[in-house]
Amino acid sequence: MLPDPAGSAGTKGGWYSFDQGSVHFIQINTEMPLAAGTEQYKWIESDLQSVDRKVTPWVIFSGHRPMYSANFFVPHFEPIEPLMMKHQVDLVLWGHVHYASATCPVYQKKCVKASVAGGYDAPIHTIIGNGGQSLSPVPEKVTEWTKFIKSEWGYSRIHIHNATHLKMFFHDNKDNKIHYSITIERAYPRI
Questions:
Q1: What are the boundaries of each domain within the chain?
Q2: Closest by Cα among 85, 66, 80, 75 to 149
Q3: What residues contact 138, with CB distance under 8 A and at least 6 apart?
Q4: Which pLDDT tens digit goes with each residue over 116-140?
Q5: d(CA 125, CA 153)
Q6: What pLDDT shows up at residue 3?
Q7: Cis peptide preceding 189, ω within 30 of 0
Q8: pLDDT value of position 106
Q9: CA distance 24 to 47
Q10: Which CATH architecture has domain 16-153?
């Protein structure tokens, strides 16, 4: 949960979480160790276990450097990917790379489909680094998990309709047009 100003568990390493309405947000420090048994790993595991999905049905995970990009997966994140899957993280927001992109629901470098309607599949990873310093070029070859990529100035919005529907929109900064959107539908209570 949101750390206290005195520096409770999570704050000294730069990771924290908070609830806003029906969403539990978790922010990690991608520059710190994530291996099983590390302080940050234990905190992530404990934090994800503490989420009451009847109260906060959505979980949005974030950090600076991306786990999944259009043309790579970073092994540094391997230890926490099973935690994200086990605790059904819905959406992941990354930065660092200066373009916009989105994956399919992905786990262990493969696109995943839910076995039942409204069931859980895997986290969708996004990069929302197209609002700052400069733009990164789109790689010549992209992975099969990449569903959208655009090197343009822009911004993103997330709209939580209710406990069953979440939408994310990728906008162009020039004319505010939506260039891509993601819809996540889940059963409530969660399956």
A1: 16-153
A2: 66
A3: 70, 99, 149, 150, 151
A4: 999 999 999 999 999 978 999 999 9
A5: 19
A6: 43
A7: yes
A8: 98
A9: 10
A10: 4-Layer Sandwich (3.60)
